[in-house]
Amino acid sequence: MEELSIKIKIADREYPMKVKLAEEEKIRAAGKLINEKIKHYRGQFGINDKQDLLAMVAFDCLVDKMADEKNLEDIDHTVVEKINHLNQLVSQGI
To answer: How far apart are CA 37 and CA 59, in angstroms?
Structure first.
């Protein structure tokens, strides 16, 4: 798979990286989202310390990820329940 050398700027620092061509758009979008969250926290709380801002963004991302995982668990549980119910109906000949 073809790799591409790119630079992503996060919190006024450039990070060189090699990414798969197919993932470039996703990587750039992630960098943009991080910078938008930094800008949001800087504006909302008046914080200028980049380490504090990055820590807040990391925390925010992890909370979002945990919420998404919980939602997926709930969906999986619901799907399993419905499949079990359908299996019962089929086995009863209804």
So the answer is: 11
User: Is the pLDDT confidence value at 94 over 80?
Assistant: no
> Can you tell me the distance from the alpha carbon of 18 to that of 16, in angstroms, rounded to the nearest whole number?
7
- pLDDT tens string 27-47: 999 999 999 999 999 999 999
3-state secondary structure of 11: coil
| Unique residue bearing structure tokens 């798969």 | 20
SS3 2: coil
Its pTM surpasses 0.90: no
For the chain, which residues make up each domain, given as ranges?
3-66
Q: Give the DSSP letter string of 36-53.
A: HHHHHHHHHH----HHHH
